[in-house]
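Bench notes, afternoon.
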Amino acid sequence: MHTAARAGVAAATVAILTLTGCAAGASPDAEPTQDEVAPGFLAVADEGFDAGGDLVVQVDYDTAEASGLDPQGAATARSWMLEGLSYETLTTIDENLDVAPKLATSWETPSDTEYVFTLADDAVFSNGRPMTAADVVGSLQRLVDTPTTWTGQLGPIASIEETGDLEVTVTLSSPYAPFLAALANTPAAILPMAEIEAGEIDITTEMVGTGPLVVTAHRQDEEWTFEPNTHHPDADALGFSTLTIDIVGDEATRAAALRDGSADFAVLNSIDSAELLANAADVTVVGQRNTDFHYLMINSLTGDEALQDQKVRFAINTAIDRDAINELAFGGATAATGVTPAGLPDSCTAADLPSAERDVAAAKAVIDGVGGLELDLVVYTDEPVLAQIAQVMQQNLAEIGVKVEIQQVDYATYSDQVYGSPADFDLALSWFAGYADPAMVTTWWNPEVAGFSAVFMKGSDELDTLISDGYTTAPGEDRAAVFQDLCALADEQSEMVPLVLRPSTIGWNTESLSPTLSSDEGYGDFLRYITEFRAN
């Protein structure tokens, strides 16, 4: 860390404490632990722990998709996780963020565009019908034929064919390195296609998958109830009888539920919650690393007119102190990132990006040249840490003559402002899932592919070419070089600006639950190992 940046952290600390009247980060003694109990795991369920009880999990918000419960239309990490309890995919991600078998027990790649999958012979939908190769072909073809947010992640699929009773062959029109990782997420789930095509199942209102759990009740924004899928291979080994997922928007309420035992497990988001639970003897709080990252949107299309100027956007970008965000909002538990998530193989190095020098004087000169700026910065209230990041940025941008008004709104309002047409904001904060292959998230920097970003960013042909090169280049030094160039160009254009990785703060009551939790996650699924949870 440069001396100037360290001084910036100290100054911002004083300013934020003055503004808020409370610490923005947890004390060192209360920080969530990242200590591993086994390689790749923060917790491993104790097989001797009393099990078979009701498991209660509290999360911050519910699914909210235009496609209802259809997993192919799921566009948010929370939807992926909740719907992923009932659905399964051909591949999955292990504790090392490597692609691993799921409904496909193995695969071969006769060429760099052919994938031959051998399917599990014990996969059964919750209605009792065994999964077939036709279900796999139909599910993937449906996703290709009816484009959703996730369709672009699958790559250039040329054909999907049933080549055996338990064999499916997918052929691509050109090499696409992240294909197997793209198959690992819930939108690529395998559906009961025979029943869907016959009109016997409305996949938008009921979930019929091969996953371990079946939904028995759902009240939007309030609660989910799941019971075991009796046809699943793990059904008899589940360490709980029912799963209730409560939607509890207030983080302090979720922390209190862990303390009093009314919840067994909860996502907490903010490291401040670790402070609230520091003296709770029966609660463990951990920090799960993620490839997810927070980013800033700068509206170059319909925001303040000055934001159409790349020099102005880059000045805003270079004024942001990532070290201050890390220290003040995350207690030092995260790190700066570029477009490709820090820590993944071949990802770019954030410290080498053009904005990393943080030249405040040069940035101020640019803003002075347009007579100063007054901008709004929109955040949604579901994640308190966004407001903390916004406060740091507000202080940073004041140094260069940009006056920022922070607008905290509910997510529905946020979505209308940021993703509506036309977009109605200057600056906005959000986060991306980082996935397991660094090429995947780069998609969102191409507005034509992403769709949602087309209302506030222009992108460029040069950047689109680098995104394509990242897909088609095999992992290794050449791909790493492409990503470094891609990150640098996106950094200079400053329309979507990566900030820092987004760790998850997660807690559980040790008297009622023994969970399994990986140290790293790439798809926002902190319930990935729920079949191993044991609740009494």
